[in-house]
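Handoff note, outgoing to incoming analyst
You'll be picking up this chain. Sequence as last confirmed:
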Amino acid sequence: MRRKRQVRVARKRVVSAGGVVLRGRVPEVLVVSLKEGRVVTLPKGQVEPGERYPETAVREVREETGVEAAVVSPLGKVRYYFTVRNGGEPVTVSKEVYYFLMAYRGGEPRPQPTEVEEAFFLPASEALERLSYPNEREMLLYEVLPLPSSKQGELKPRPFR
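Most recent structure output, in case you need it:
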């Protein structure tokens, strides 16, 4: 009988922040692409020591895309897991991303080549179709199809989940 090989799995936690940047009366959404265009995602990145989540979102949007944006409100938090290799050993990473609704303030999208391949605006309906990750589509849906409160015309606050 063959013995199973014991694999040591280290765990790592990563915290990031990013934004749903909207531009225009008929909203366009800022997205970035990776992996030769196979992945379309919202701009986001790791929180630096001493930085607050909204500050990270503003910085990462600017660094990855060249676009200036301001935080309007929190949208929510997602957590997911993936595995990477570190010196040949598998490492399970727990990644938490805090998303913010952000208003476009200026600048034309230009990618940061060390991070993303392209940066561009898409009509919101097209972004919903092209975003690669369901949790990011959900963040966009919160803004495109807002949840009504009991009072007509008002929105329910969306605290971090």
